[in-house]
Amino acid sequence: MQTITLQDQTYEVLREMIIKLDLYPGQKISESHLIDLLEVGRTPIRESLKRLKKQNLIFTFPQSGTYVSRIDMSRALQARFIRECVEKEVMTELCGVMDEKSEKMLWKILDRQRETFKNNNVSDYFDVDNEFHLVSPPRKLGTLVP
């Protein structure tokens, strides 16, 4: 069994906060604030910030501070296009092997996803989207990949 370190947990929480816009694009962030917010030590925060910088999710201006990266709309649109293409293909393949119970569950999740989108609830939208991917039958998906 793989142990998840405090640094990994801290990184995942910060990454999720950025993706869900709890830390918004352009927001200045400080180590001391994050230490207080997440109730962890300086080392997990620093290591997490290094990882986030490598992913271009945050950036640092010397003598100014660390900030959440702004959203690059061109990259976001490209990523959305790729995701839509892949997900459509996967769902087309899954429709042929998915049982009725799984299909009903996916439709319920899609309805909840539409509702969270309509209510402009970004955080819940991502949670429901992740739930959708967890409910999709992965063992059957593995049979689709040559």
From TrEMBL:
UniProt keyword Glycosyltransferase, yes or no: no
Pfam families: GntR
Entry-linked InterPro entries: TF_FadR/GntR_C (IPR008920), Tscrpt_reg_HTH_GntR (IPR000524), WH-like_DNA-bd_sf (IPR036388), WH_DNA-bd_sf (IPR036390)
GO MF annotations, alphabetized: DNA binding; DNA-binding transcription factor activity
Domain HTH gntR-type stretches: 4-71
UniProtKB keywords: DNA-binding, Transcription, Transcription regulation
CDD domains associated with the record: WHTH_GntR
Taxonomic lineage from the root: Bacteria, Bacillati, Bacillota, Bacilli, Lactobacillales
Official protein name in the record: Regulatory protein, gntR family
Superkingdom of this protein's organism: Bacteria
